[in-house]
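Record ABC transporter ATP-binding protein, 303 aa.
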Amino acid sequence: MAQEPVVRIQNVTKRIGSKVLIDRLTLDIPPGQVFGFLGPNGAGKTTTIRMMVGLMSITKGDILIQGASVKSDFERAISAVGAIVENPEMYKFLTGYQNLLHYARMSPGITKERIMEAVERVGMQHRIHDKVKTYSLGMRQRLGVAQAILHRPKLLILDEPTNGLDPQGIRELRDYLRVLAKEEGATVFVSSHLLSEMELMCDTVAVIQHGRLIDVKTLGKENDAADRPQETAFEVDAPERALRLVKEGRLEGNHLIVTADRSATAEINTKLVLAGISVYGIRVLTRSLEDQFLEMTGGGQID
Ligand SMILES: Nc1ncnc2c1ncn2[C@@H]1O[C@H](COP(=O)(O)OP(=O)(O)OP(=O)(O)O)[C@@H](O)[C@H]1O
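=>
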C-alpha cells in the first residue's frame, strides 16, 4: 500500500491583484524521498514554497503537512517542517557549533547529542568548531541544513539549494540529502530551474510552469520508462520495405524509428521477421529529462 503523502497540495491558487501566480496546483509528496520541484524562472516555485511555510497566504485550496492544514492548523503543520527559504542568518564570528547551540537554546528538547548528530548528517564534523566566516558557501549551506533538521522535521524544504555551488558542492549536496532522506526518514523537497541537477539529486520531479503543474516524473526507474511509448530504432537490412510494412515512423539510414511501447516493439519485430526482413538490433532511444523538459516548456522560456 502506498504510504500517506507527507505533503498534500490541494487545488491551490494564489492570486495577487489580478495576477494568478499559482493556478489550481495539486500535488502529493510521498515520504522518504528527495522530491524535486522544477520549473523555469518565474514558474511559481518560490511562491508555492512560501505558501507551504506560511510566509504567504493561500488564496484558494489548502496545503496539508503530515495531515495538518497550513490554513487552519498552522502550528501543527509547521512543526513538521524544516526549511531554508531565504538565506539563514548565521553569526559569522561564532563557530558553526556555537551557532547551532544558540539556535537550539531557543527550541526546547534539542540536546548536544542531537546537535552533533545533525552535524554528522551533513558531513560537517571536521569544520564545525571553526568560525562561520571561514566557511565556503557550501559549508554555510550545510550548517543551515543542520540547523533546519535539529528538531527532526519530517519535511525539509530547500529553495534553489544548488544556486552558487560549484559542481563538487552540488555532488556533496546530493550525497548528504540522500543520507538525510534515508537516515532521518525525512522527505526533502528541493526546487530548482536546472534539470541536470534535478536528475542527479531526486527520486521524483514535479514540473511547474506558469503556476501550473505540467508533469510528475519518477526518475531512474526502468520499469516506469519501459511501459511508456518511447522512440525505438530497428536496424534492418531493407529499411524502405520495413517502413512500408509498419506504416509508421521514419527512416534514419538503415534504421526504422518508431514510437512504441514494449508490446508494440515486440509486434513490430515479429512483423518484420515474418516478412523476411533481417532485424540486426532494437534500441530504445531514451531521452533525458532535459529533452522532455525543454519540449514541455517550449525551450524553457518564460513566455
Ligand atoms: N508579491 C508578488 N506580487 C506580484 N507578483 C509576484 C509576487 N511574488 C512573485 N510574483 C510573480 O509571480 C511569478 C512566480 O514567481 P516565483 O518567485 O514563485 O517563481 P519561481 O519559480 O520561484 O522563479 P525563480 O526561480 O525566478 O524564483 C513571477 O512572475 C513573479 O514575478
